[in-house]
Structure formats: structure tokens, C-alpha cells
Design goal:
Blueprint (H helix, E strand, L loop, with lengths): L16 H24 L17 H87 L2 H14 L5 H12 L4 E2 L8 E2 L1 H10 L9 H5 L3 E3 L9 E5 L4 E9 L2 E7 L3 E6 L7 E4 L2
Parallel strand pairs: 1-2
Antiparallel strand pairs: 3-8, 4-5, 4-8, 5-6, 6-7
Helix pairs in contact: 2-3, 4-5
């Protein structure tokens, strides 16, 4: 017995002829099936095509970005320009409005000054006429020797020499200080008045409160005759309880009052527009 007889051989065993035939038959069947399926496939089937997507290049991205930045800069510049123009227009409008306002104020001031000057000229003219008439009356009285004329002359002389004192002086001084101011219906100062507004304000300087309406003002105090007036007395036109106009007697046969819109506050002589009566509050 050989010493190597018990060692198994490492060679692969030969496949049997039957196994090889079986495998060949299976392979043949598979190939036949594939061939039949290929013949049965529709002849019109379109081949599959590939689609290629083009990606933007770096250069095109830079160009688009630059264009967008330029457009944004242009829009910002235009907006800034529009805002600047709007600001300039607003400034111009404000300047024009301010200049127009100043021009109107100056025109109003000049008109008021001219009105006041005209009123003063009229007052001086009337005062001159009054003085002339007084002188003529005095001469006539002295030449005729009539007692009534002498009495009238004496009354006129005493009235021209009256001097306001105390509270009456404060009232008269305030009234005269307003000469040249405008007349405005319902005005109570400080630069425009109506007749009763001026009288009320003048008496307030003496610490006396008067009603606002002329009819109520003329109803206060004691009634006095026009031949016995004293500075500070209230003159009225119309009935005492229903007067339509009031003024302040300032002495010397004159009064100060807010007459009307065309004259404003003026000083007049009693014979310019003779009042209906007078009352004394002091």
C-alpha cells in the first residue's frame, strides 16, 4: 500500500455530462426568450435622448449684478434730486408767503398812519374853527352888551380852562392816547376800539368797571347838562337808556371817541356833532 494513498486529491472533480447538458439547455432557453421579446418590441419606440442644462457662466453673473447696482444707484440719485427740488420749492413758497405777509403788514401800517394823520388834521381844523367862532362870539358879546351873550362867553371861557385831575385825569389821558387807533365793531383794544369799548377801557384806568354796551353806560351815574360838563364825563347820543353812541369829554369843549371805521378814534369839538346828553360817574 502506497504511503500517499490516503491523502485526498486537490483536483476539482470533473462535471458529469448530464449536468453540463442541463445547464446548456437552460441557457439556451433564456437566450431564446430574450430574442422573442426583442422581436416583439414596437418598431416605433423613440430612442431616449439626453437633455443638457446650460449653467450661467461667472461672467454673465457679474454683468447682471453690475447692471442691477447701476440701476439702483440711478434710482437713488433721482430720488435724492426729487427731494432736493421739493425742498427748494417749499423754501421758495415759504419765503414768498413771508414776504407777502410783511408787505401786507407794512401796507396796513401805512394805511393806519395815513388815516390817523387825516383824523388829526380834521381835528385840528375843527378846533381852529371852534376857536374862531369863540372869538367871534366874544367880540359880539362885548359889543352888544347882551347879558345872555356874556353868559355864554363866560361859560365857554370856563370850559376851555378846565383841567382834569385825579381819576378824571387818568381817564382823559388814556382816551387821548388812543387817538389814531382804528375803529372796529366790538373792538376792546389795544389797537382797535368801538365807542363803548374805548369808554369802558378808559374808566378801567380809574378802577371803575362799566358795562360793555353804550346804552348801559349812559344809564349809570348822574345826568348833567352840556353847559356844566367836567373832564371824564360820558357823552351820549340818543336817549339816555337807549343811546347808540358814547364818548368821553376831555375838557376845552372837546371829546374823544371811537367814531366810525372811516375816522377811527378822534378828538372832536362839541359842535362837530352835538351829543344828546351827558352823565357823570366820578
Amino acid at each position: 500500500m502506497s504511503h500517499t494513498a490516503h491523502i485526498p486529491s486537490h483536483r476539482k472533480p470533473r462535471r458529469s455530462a448530464s449536468k453540463m447538458a442541463l445547464r446548456a439547455g437552460v441557457a439556451g432557453g433564456v437566450f431564446s426568450t430574450l430574442a422573442v421579446a426583442g422581436a416583439a418590441a414596437p418598431a416605433s419606440a423613440e430612442p431616449v435622448t439626453e437633455t443638457t442644462l446650460e449653467m450661467p457662466t461667472l461672467g454673465s453673473l457679474d454683468a447682471d449684478l453690475a447692471s442691477a447696482v447701476s440701476a439702483s444707484a440711478d434710482a437713488s440719485q433721482q430720488e435724492a434730486l426729487d427731494q432736493s427740488l421739493a425742498a427748494q420749492e417749499d423754501a421758495a413758497l415759504k419765503k414768498a408767503a413771508s414776504e407777502a405777509k410783511k408787505a401786507k403788514a407794512e401796507a396796513d401800517r401805512k394805511a393806519e398812519a395815513e388815516k390817523a394823520e387825516k383824523a388829526r388834521a380834521e381835528a385840528q381844523e375843527r378846533a381852529s374853527r371852534t376857536a374862531q367862532r369863540t372869538q367871534l362870539a366874544a367880540k359880539s358879546a362885548s359889543s352888544s352888551g347882551s347879558s345872555s351873550s356874556v353868559g355864554s362867553s363866560s361859560s365857554s371861557s370856563s370850559s376851555s380852562s378846565q383841567v382834569a385831575t385825579g381819576s378824571a385825569a387818568a381817564i382823559v389821558a388814556f382816551a387821548k392816547a388812543q387817538i389814531g387807533d382804528a375803529y372796529v365793531m366790538g373792538g376792546t383794544g389795544p389797537n382797535s376800539w368801538d365807542c363803548s369799548g374805548l369808554v369802558q377801557a378808559a374808566y378801567r384806568q380809574a378802577g371803575i368797571d362799566l358795562p360793555r354796551i353804550s346804552g348801559d353806560q349812559s344809564s349809570r351815574g348822574t345826568s348833567v347838562s352840556l353847559s356844566n360838563l367836567q373832564p371824564g364825563d360820558i357823552l351820549y347820543w340818543g336817549s339816555r337808556s337807549g343811546s347808540y353812541h358814547v364818548a368821553i369829554y376831555v375838557g376845552g369843549g372837546k371829546y374823544v371817541g371811537a367814531q366810525n371805521p372811516s375816522t377811527g378814534v378822534v378828538e372832536r369839538s362839541l359842535d362837530w356833532d352835538t351829543p344828546s346828553g351827558a352823565v357823570r360817574i366820578l
